[in-house]
Design goal:
heterodimer, B: alpha+beta, elongated
């Protein structure tokens, strides 16, 4: 766009100097005068009746200011949800507890230590009841999780009923049934678990509420991915106008979806702050992050492929159950549906997808990195691999044979959605050429011939992100439930200040994705000014237009485009001002190196400071032009974006121990145009690692009574540096036309492509022994057992 | 109880409850909030500081146990405006995303290089096993420490992967 172009290049992050010196501000660092501290009494039972709660001893303790139960806050109603389908969570347990860890009472005290001590003094009389944990049992409705609901199933996608009449999808059930009757087909079917995970941002969630009862205004700090929605939800709960709540999300120490929610502590700290007329802080412990912050995944389902002997897939069926947990929160019920959107993967094949979401007596599930799409990718890519092995065909070629072809784009999926752009063969070829596919297979074969258990796993993936088009607000993609009926529009405000510097205020906010750097690149490029003259502000509801937040790999594709649009508007006005000052035509104005000059006359120039000065002294402006130099843009994309790619892993299994090493991990990702390749690569590294973690290490395990057996980092081992290799990253670039930057989003892609890649590789390594499938996580015991079972078979 | 220690070169003397954890003493009483709490159980390492030159997890040490000790936190690592080479490495090689684990990770990296100035990749990975990062997949943290190791040995750090790619 100009000679100072910084768009698309590596720029070191401007966020880093503060963070590497310990000077970043996270919510738990906030200390307000007179601040009190909250702690929660939590249920040790997954399902129990509460006969009584005795708070007297806790209240009598020195330093305890208040103990609240549901009787104090029942009038506020339940916790608001974006999609309030199924059972909504009470702010504190109301006569019953429905998962272990549910908040029963809140203590507020002078110090966090005293608050924690007082938790032990609250005497709750529980009457334990049988817990429903097993998904098939829950789906059977043999017993109900909530007596006042008719069924445990709260959301179901069967065939295409849900969107019937809205999107012209094509239910492939009849076609698939017909194919099954042919005598020249192969049918492969496998039940697989996509286990529950705990998102585990390293920063525990933290909130500070300060209700000024004089002005009836709340200042609310929260480590949230959706601070505008949280502020709106607080306002709605207390009957205040939305702008009475000033939400601030400073540095957010990782989110991955678990901070894409509204939590009871965000409401209750506000309540306590008003009641006690003091600021109140709550910071969860790691154990609380496990039992009372949302979890992810939790599917069981059977995937089936009907295909020919030469690799033509005639249909893909899925029948599964997704665990919703005890209560619906933000978008709990939408997670399986996000899986439906990409259920067929990269393949142009008939689809029959059936999934139901059921309540259980466990913590709520919701969006965790990928949110439905890793689950969907796992099932299709595992069963495609199983099919390829069954017919003895190269797994790369089976995939290629069934892809949507480049010339089909924009392509329509089986359920009737339009995919913006894609070139799946280019991605596969880049992978196969990059790794030297036939040589790699030969290397594996030699190793296996020599008695080593080396395997190669491949996965294609397509994801849908960059939400999104405002029409989707009519189908639940909005914050209506929080009293903020905004669609997932992008917002950006660009202002040229009196000194010629620029301030960008964005509606979204980062939790590590480098927004400050990327947005500075976009605006500096658009205005032709040095990046250091651009300040990026985020995470503050008072400064910015309503903003949606960072989730669903949406920020750059939607809010980035809004900043781009606002920049263009500012540039147009600046050109008119410069033309006026230079007595030239606006069409001839060029912006370069921090100034505007007339094309062909570099000496005839004004600086941005000159333009800014004129903009703030309207008498210097052209006749009729208003003062100021700023623009706000609400960007409404016509479609979501559809990134895609190919992952490959090479592993070696030790059959004596069941342990395995990841020898190589290679990706070819395509997220359209790239604003900052360094940041994009970093997103892929982290994404792969979370998918590998699901494949190898992580599992939220509940026992039959609904106790979470994995609430600490000892029981829930997220990867250490020794658990993953260095990664080999490659890229293809297939821009989208749904936004002017041509960008798609990359936050979740690594996770969506990786879990099945690892499982495919391990199964490939053990296939000579007869192993066909191993359930995740592939811990040594499980791999070893699979080897023993195969030997015994 | 009264405790005295040297923190980032300054002598401090404060009253603490006997049960006060060192990390809370550092954060709440000394207001040095660069040291973070991620798990309270010594697994995540976000609270890593140096006590008498050793990297330790300050969430499972009492402030009174550090009486008389010499402590360095992330805030004490840079020399004025000059970043420590490990800090510089993290900036140069995109070794952080959300930044929450970063102070502890850097403190462990510094201790690792003090013990082993020329670590292999495997030694770096092993050396930072006690510090969990959920954002970076460790790839660029390893590159950051390799950068710092070279710099501290007086060598030119290996080029960034993106520099290699464009070369």
């Amino acid at each position: 766009m100009s000679t100072t172009s910084v768009l698309g290049g590596v720029v070191k992050r401007r966020e880093d100097p503060a963070l590497i010196q310990g000077k970043g501000l996270y919510v738990d660092d906030v200390k307000l005068p007179g601040m009190l501290y909250a702690a929660f009494v939590r249920s040790p039972f997954a399902h129990a009746r509460i006969n009584s709660i005795d708070t007297a001893a806790a209240l009598a303790m020195d330093g305890v200011r208040a103990v609240y139960t549901i009787d104090d806050v029942r009038h506020l109603g339940p916790l608001l949800a974006q999609l309030p389908v199924g059972k909504q969570r009470p702010l504190l347990a109301d006569g019953m507890v429905n998962h272990a860890g549910e908040a029963v009472a809140m203590i507020v005290a002078d110090s966090p230590y005293v608050a924690q001590d007082a938790v032990e003094l609250v005497d709750v009389d529980y009457e334990p009841l049988a817990a429903i944990v097993d998904l098939k049992e829950a789906a059977s409705d043999a017993a109900l999780v909530h007596d006042d609901l008719e069924s445990n199933t709260i959301i179901a996608w069967a065939g295409h009923e849900w969107w019937a009449g809205v999107i012209p999808g094509k239910d492939g059930s009849a076609e698939i049934e017909a194919a099954k009757q042919r005598d020249d087909v192969v049918i492969v079917s496998q039940e697989m678990v996509n286990q529950r995970l705990i998102p585990t941002a390293i920063e525990p969630r933290s909130v500070v509420a300060d209700w000024n009862t004089g002005y009836d205004r709340i200042t609310l700090y929260s480590s949230s991915q959706i601070i505008h929605a949280v502020a709106a939800a607080v306002a709605k709960t207390f009957g205040l106008p939305t702008n009475a709540v000033h939400g601030i999300a400073p540095e957010v120490g990782g989110g991955f979806g678990c901070k894409l929610n509204v939590y009871v502590d965000e409401i209750l700290t506000c309540f306590a702050s008003k009641d006690l007329d003091r600021p109140v802080k709550f910071t969860e412990t790691r154990r609380e992050a496990a039992v009372s912050t949302i979890q992810g995944r939790g599917w069981i389902g059977t995937a089936t492929i009907v295909g020919t002997n030469d690799g033509e897939i005639l249909g893909y069926e899925f029948d599964g159950i997704a665990d919703m947990g005890a209560y619906s929160q933000n978008i709990t019920i939408a997670i399986p549906l996000l899986g439906v959107y990409v259920a067929q993967g990269q393949y142009d094949i008939p689809l029959s997808f059936n999934i139901k979401g059921v309540h259980t007596h466990t913590m709520t599930t919701d969006a965790y990195r990928g949110a439905g799409r890793p689950e969907a990718a796992y099932y299709i890519e595992r069963i495609v691999d199983i099919y390829a092995r069954k017919i003895g065909m190269d797994p790369a070629e089976v995939r290629r044979k069934n892809y949507f072809k480049k010339e089909q784009f924009p392509a329509t999926t089986a359920i009737g959605l339009t995919m913006d752009s894609g070139d799946y063969e280019k991605s596969l070829d880049a992978m196969l050429e990059g790794v030297g596919w036939s040589d790699l297979l030969a290397e594996r074969d030699q190793a296996q011939a020599a008695g080593r258990h080396v395997g190669i796993g491949l996965s294609s993936y397509v994801e849908v992100c960059g939400f999104g088009p405002s029409i989707l607000a009519e189908f639940g993609f909005s914050f209506d439930g929080y009293g903020a009926p905004s669609a997932f529009t992008g917002t950006g405000l660009v202002r040229v200040n009196t000194d010629g510097s620029a301030t960008v205020i964005i509606g979204t906010g980062p939790s590590g994705q480098g927004h400050e750097t990327a947005w500075a690149q976009i605006v500096a490029d658009g205005l032709g000014i040095p990046m250091e003259h651009v300040t990026v502000l985020h995470g503050d509801t008072k400064e910015s237009p309503f903003g949606v937040g960072t989730f669903g790999s949406r920020s750059i594709a939607v809010d980035g485009a809004a900043a781009y649009g606002a920049t263009a508007e500012v540039r147009t006005k600046a050109a008119a001002i410069a033309a006026h000052l230079l007595e030239a035509s606006a069409d001839d104005i060029r912006f370069e190196d921090g100034s505007a000059h007339v094309a062909g006359s570099p000496d005839k120039a004004v600086s941005w400071a000159d333009i800014a000065k004129a903009a703030h002294r309207p008498h210097m402006l052209p006749e009729g032009m208003a003062g100021g130099l700023e623009a706000v843009n609400y960007f409404d994309p016509p479609n979501a974006t559809w990134p895609f790619g190919t992952h490959l892993a090479m592993v070696e299994v030790d059959p004596e121990t069941g342990n395995f090493d990841i020898l190589r991990y290679v990706t070819v990702d395509d997220c359209g145009n790239v604003v900052n390749p360094m940041i994009v690569d970093g997103q892929v590294h982290g994404g792969i690692t979370q998918g590998v973690a699901q494949a190898v290490l992580e599992e939220a395990i509940y026992d039959q009574d609904g106790n979470l057996l994995t609430p600490s980092l000892m029981d829930y081992p997220i990867p250490t540096a020794s658990d993953v290799p260095s990664f080999e990253l490659h890229r293809t670039v297939t821009p989208t036309d749904v936004n002017p930057l041509g960008v798609k989003g990359i936050g979740e892609a690594g996770t969506i492509g990786s879990a099945q890649t690892i499982v495919n590789a391990v199964v490939d390594a053990l296939a000579p022994l007869g192993v066909e499938h191993i359930e995740m996580p592939l811990r040594p015991r499980r791999v070893w057992q699979a080897i023993q079972d195969a030997k015994g078979a | 109880m009264q405790v005295s220690m040297t923190v980032n070169g300054n002598t401090v003397s404060e009253d603490v409850e006997a049960r006060t954890l060192l990390v809370h003493f550092i954060r709440e009483q000394l207001l040095l909030t660069g040291t973070h709490v991620g798990c309270e159980t010594s697994y995540c390492g976000a609270c890593t500081v140096h006590v008498n030159g050793e990297a330790i997890k300050s969430c499972t040490m009492l402030a009174v146990q550090a009486d008389g000790a010499e402590i360095t936190t992330i805030e004490g690592l840079a020399e004025g405006d000059e970043l420590h080479p490990v800090q510089e490495g993290f900036w140069e090689r995109h070794g952080l995303q959300c930044g929450y684990c970063t102070p502890g990770m850097i403190m462990s990296g510094v201790a690792l290089l003090a013990d082993n100035p020329s670590p292999t990749e495997a030694e770096i990975r092993h050396g930072i096993e006690g510090n969990l990062c959920r954002c970076t997949g460790y790839h660029n943290i390893v590159r950051s420490i390799e950068y710092a190791a070279a710099k501290m040995r007086g060598e030119t750090p290996p080029p960034a992967e993106w520099e290699e790619a464009s070369a």
